[in-house]
User: Fold these one by one.
Assistant:
Number 1:
Amino acid sequence: MYVRNARNREEVWLLDHIEAMALDAAAFRSRDYVIAIDESGNEKVGFGRIRIHRADERVCELTGIGVLEGWRGQGVGAHVIERLVDRASDEGFATVYSLTDQPRYLDRFGFDRIDREELPAKIETRLDEKRDGSVPDAVPLALATDEFSMPEALRERFKHASPVGEGDGEPEETPEDFGIDSENATYKYDTG
């Protein structure tokens, strides 16, 4: 399992999953996203975005974090967030903001609730947009990029992540299920 930058050709995949999860796609640009990949099947399992606002001052917003259902609870979202915070830091941001109705999830990484009055103007506008739209209970959070912390349990889960329910499907059929003696059969059809 690893997290990498999204590629242009993954726009459709991203937009499909953003829509399915009812996430914010405002000012969509695939290059703002990272994608979590399961190495065993090269399957995309999660994603997230940093949105850089260039108004009076440059500010960075963490948004659009999504993990496919069978992969939740295994540290995928945590590693997406870690990669995004690293990118924000690399681009010179000391603080990352997030507007979410799930503040307890981000609390574990060091995000703190902040008062509306402390928000940069553009993030305050985004808070109003979210509250008027799809996230009426949005809460503003902030994180100093150098204070991000990953709980060790999430690191361990990520190392061993696999889709929930894998192996729970139909049992594999064997030759014996069809009355074939696999120890003595030498041909597909009995000829004689």
Number 2:
Amino acid sequence: MQLGKDIAAVITGGASGLGAATARALAGRGVKVGLLDVNEAGGTALAKELGGTFAKCDVTSEADVDAALAAVRKAHGQERILVNCAGIAIGQRTARKGKEGAPPVPHDLASFARVISINLIGSFLMMAKSSAGMLTLDPIGPDGERGVMINTSSVAAEDGQIGQVAYAASKGGVKSMVLPVARDLAQSGIRVCAILPGLFHTPMFDGLPEDARKALAASVPFPSRLGSATE
């Protein structure tokens, strides 16, 4: 797809981290960017900087997604690009010993479900809603393309570490989901793919417990540091 001023994009998790870096890269190519995030202050500021549009959105809420897409489409038209970057991570073992003789503690179910809901179900919901909109567009370019949807999985989908059971499950789900979605939409000219980033220094990473951050950062062989979002 030829990027330019006639193309609109929607980026979830667009207020910070990989989402913000993606928004800057697309805006730098002339693309009209719509940012969806729960971080209203960060999203509003970045949208102003890039000449884009921000809509507050919880990707687990169908009502929020519908309203946010309606807002950015009103400003920019139907998106041909969707980039799913919204996500959270937690560090928690499947079970752990209790402190000071207390009984063992299983993984908190609500926390597990929240990670799955945001990372996996949120990605699915955005793809379903965005692709339905893309189907209304005329195909463009020599290949007759209507749009492209890029999902953020993770290296944890294939190489989950201690304490990443919820995160790895959610990102493994994203990775597995992409192929059937791509097959569903290929004949309509919509491409679907996933990227599997390694360890990047983002607000999501900073939200992990300190011991988890240190262990994960120490596992990077070369270059022996966390990646930056612009990379």
Number 3:
Amino acid sequence: MDTNLDRLLIIHREKLLESLGKTENEINEDVNIILEWFKTQKHLPEPLSRHAIARWLVLTKFSIERTKQLCDMYYTSRSLFRDVYDCCDIEQPEQKLCIEKVFYYIPLPKQTRDFYRVDVVAFQDFEYENYNPYRMLAQVHMIYELAMHKDFEAGDIVIIDFKHIRKSYVLKTTPTSLKVLNIFLEKIWASRVKGIHFINVPTYAETLIKIARTILKKKLLNRLYVHSNIENLYEYLPREILPKDFGGDEKSLAELNELWKSELEKNSERLKHLQKLTVNNSLRTEPLINSDYLGYYGNFKKLDVD
């Protein structure tokens, strides 16, 4: 059955797997291995969908161990980042206001020719006195919660439009909140970012880009592009993919935002249920993989750098 989500996220699963030299049978075998592993992980609340696991396998270049880590962090993160997850409820008045009037996070419907998803991050023309970067991150994550069971992409290309960002928003976006965003990108969403394109950047927002450069991995630093005009963006992305706001052929950001809001509202009970699914560390058989960000069992204190 055709649904809004089918139209919001057009995928080419068979062609993508073919381009990566994988067959459905091969990826299904890997998914089965992950699902069998889930049965041995008593600390995890429930297995993920076959589609979500297959998608993570693609994004990790078919690394079974890395995919296991993502499955673990997907649930472990819920107790680590309550500032984000406590906002993952579209029925909260403040969160609903953010989606309706403050912030856009839009995965554009059409993929690039090499099967990358283009994601637009933008601010609406609205002065929000209670701006909280974690609410913005929660909005992204709620959409991700739906997309991970539908989308199937080689990676992401991100467009960040600062046209309507307020100076007060910049001042409230701390280095810690940007580090949390980076953890979500790498450790929870498994984003393979091909490029980040900044447009309409006012002088006072350049600070955010400078901070980001101190946090991002070196490989990604070489994939940051700041465009002085929208025409430069067309050298990287075709107009048929881009929204009308950027001179493209796709629906406007406002139209796409309404469709995503509708999907979030239809799935609000499921989203609230997901936020309650945390790990039981007393049943964990092995420590969480140590990392520069989290340490054993997710020592979040290392992020307190403000």
Number 4:
Amino acid sequence: MLALLLSPMPAAALVGVTTSGMTQRRLGNTDLLVSSCALGGMTWGAQNTDDEAAEQLAFAFDMGVNFVDTAEGYPIAMCAETQGKTDRAIAKWLRSSKVPRDQVVISTKVCGYNDRYTWFRRSGDGTQLSRSQIIESVDDSLKRLGVEYVDLLQFHWPERYVGLTGVGQRLVAKERSRGETPILEQCEALDELVKDGKIRHWGLSNENADGLAEFRKAAAAIGLAPPACMQNAYSLLQRGDEVSLVPDLLEDPKEAPCSYIAYSPLAAGVLSGKYSARAKPAKRSRLKIFKSYEESFKATMGPAAVDAYMQVARKHGLTPSQLALAHCNSRDFVTSTIIGATTKTQLAENLAAFQYEWSQELEDDVHNVYMRFPDPWKVQVAGGG
């Protein structure tokens, strides 16, 4: 039987358990309490209809989720024809569900630098984290969502070039033909939005320790509260942040705590096992939508690592997806893990992972696989590239 995980969590503070058994944790140094599972909406408006989105939201909230993740660019794949549909699906659910606004933690993201994304701004320019673009983005998001404020605003990816791996590598290019907006200017825009009551808190995404330090410094210079969180890709296949970032997030006594939010815990679905050698991916799966992602995955040790983790899951009576999600939830530095689904059945399976008691035997089995495949995305197979 699944048992609620109640082990000590000194880094990501466990502050409560809902009647449904979902834990809540404090976001950074803020007054926000967020569920250990966040519901991501990047399929709503593309792979899912508004009615399906509403069904997922209703079910997740019944299970104790209070944290919803969206972005101005959703749904994926980002394109002008569908941009903003995720926000509108959330707005439709908010109106029909009658859930009080203060019981829904809404997180959204503004696009970082990209010369190709010319449909977001009225000027026709590519996206950039300038003061004017940040404010325009938030104003447009509020209109689509039908709310007066968002609880959390994050920069989807940095203004400057930051090398990423896994899913995030698609977001960035090295060229900055329009120059880079200074971090201080970005913080000044955030400060203005906080003072205007349009956002409550802010955070970063797809960032590293150097960026975190610079944002903390710039925020302090103008009296802006430090970033509340960092949202990065983290999964059984991508654990580099444990060494390169987490100590700076949570273990520096001189700094206010900054929560870690894990996205892509299934590594774009590959950790579900549905892309194994024995399975045929669906036409609308993310590996089919992003063909280059499928090719890069197959060219690495990723498939071998996934097969090994699938064996661990079977041994412990878990589905591959549940193993991957329970692993994220068991890390003491993870405040919340963002999940997504295209069906209610998938969602129910994924939510069950947050009720699982992580044992030492399971930790040892996962660690043994990790020692064999510590960074499978970066290890090419013979003939793979």
